[in-house]
Amino acid sequence: MSRLELLKQYWDFTYDQEDWFPPLKDALNGVTAAQADWRPEGEAANTIRATVHHLVFYKERFLQALQTGDAGYPPGLTNDDTFRADGTDEASWTAVRARLEAAHRSLRALLGAMTESDLEKRVPKTETGQWFMSLIAHDAYHTGEIVQIRKLQGSWPARRSFE
Questions:
Q1: pLDDT tens string 84-93
Q2: How far apart are CA 42 and CA 144, in angstroms?
Q3: SUPFAM superfamilies attached here (predicted)?
Q4: Domain ranges, residue 121
Q5: C-alpha distance from residue 69 to each of 12, 74, 132 (Å)
């Protein structure tokens, strides 16, 4: 399997196709705005909604980098700032999940049109293939956090069957 085919496969696994871990889309399925804003009492943990905003920021940033060559942070923005949510109602929760889906699908379409040599192009300083691999690992990491929060809420099964 080529590097390009491997990236395509794992891009799909991390978002909407089950492999050895639940995909992000499944981890978010059925989550209400109230559940998205829940945080364990006394814990310094991000909410599901804040984590989704963070994921959207980096997917949109990479999409922008591929389209314009500019991957810089907006002035004064820190990584912590990317966890800020823009609301607590169902409408804003639906909107951020739609942005996540759109960014993921747009990047997947671009990846689907790439060649092996495209993966070596720097955008602006990082190889495109490395960007994709980093986002795959990033999504998997934060999907695990989301699943853990859902387990603490009681909104994710303690055990899942894969049959």
A1: 998 899 999 9
A2: 20
A3: DinB/YfiT-like putative metalloenzymes
A4: 3-153
A5: 24, 14, 15
Q: Report the alpha-carbon distance of residue 68 to residue 124 in Å, rounded.
A: 9
Q: Are strands 122-123 and 126-127 parallel, antiparallel or unpaired?
A: antiparallel
**Mean local confidence (pLDDT), 50-55:** 98
Q: State how far the Cα of 35 lies from the Cα of 37, in Å rounded to an integer.
A: 5
59, burial (CB in 10 Å: exposed 0-12, middle 13-18, buried 19+): buried
CATH number for position 92: 1.20.120.450
pTM, to two decimals: 0.94
Q: Are 27 and 146 in contact (CB under 8 A)?
A: yes
Q: What is the CA radius of gyration of the chain?
A: 16
- Burial code (b: 16+ CB inside 10 Å, e: under 16) for 33-50 equals bebbbbbeeeeeebbbbb
